[in-house]
TrEMBL record:
Record's GO cellular component terms: cytoplasm
Cell compartment(s), UniProt: Cytoplasm
Activity control, per UniProt: Inhibited by UTP.
Full protein name: Uridylate kinase
Originating species: Desulfomarina profundi
Catalytic activity: UMP + ATP = UDP + ADP
Pfam families attached to this UniProt entry: AA_kinase
Function as written in the Swiss-Prot or TrEMBL entry: Catalyzes the reversible phosphorylation of UMP to UDP.
EC number(s) from the headed UniProt entry: 2.7.4.22
Amino acid sequence: MTIKYRRMLLKLSGEALMGEESYGISPKVLEFVASEVKEVIELGVELGIVIGAGNIFRGVAGASKGMDRTTADNMGMLATVMNSLAMQDALERNGIITRVMSAIPMQSVSEPYIRRRATRHLEKGRVVIFAAGTGNPYFTTDSAAVLRALEIDAEIVIKATKVDGVYDKDPVKYSDALKFETLSYDEVLRKGLRVMDAAGIALAREDGLPIMVLDMGESGNIKKAAIGKQVGTLISE
Ligand code: UDP
């Protein structure tokens, strides 16, 4: 099987890790993601992963209850480290060599993020999990995913969600919602589509980095994306 993308960046939201639960991490989901990742690695794809923390803590939620925003965001970033370690554990149990690199230095549990080191890991076939977002408050892990993808020269960002692409309105609420096969960055921003935060989209646009939005729950989707099949919605120039 020939692959289309040699190096990919997978973005998983924290909520995706929750599965059917209302908080935290579902071991079943972790196991499922690990097997999906394994399929892609076996094709020879080099993979970076960025994980959010909506299943544990979001900075805006803390700030809305009166917390200092920067402190709350720091907590959100630390929560991504927990998710990253859980993902690393699941991947390694499936025989996939993994490194967690944190944007907030945390030497006893992860490596610090150093770009050259990250690309070396990828070249050796190790999956690199980029933890702690960008390391800066007021950003999201969507922006972190695009930023790291650009830094490591990934050819695509795969945004794994619970829906099978981008719709003109919420497909859960509206039965007449229409799915887009493709979208330009400008369309996403103009129509105010809630695919990814605007900062992430704008950053991807600067370098023409494609973003594929697909359903994580459907087995084989990431592999299909890797070999160039159209799954979900492709956002590009
Ligand atoms: N966060 C941050 N800077 C970053 C990335 C994340 O401050 O570069 C914080 C922010 O508080 C955010 C939380 O970490 O709410 C979790 O990330 P995100 O909301 O992107 O998670 P997701 O929605 O993907 O689960």
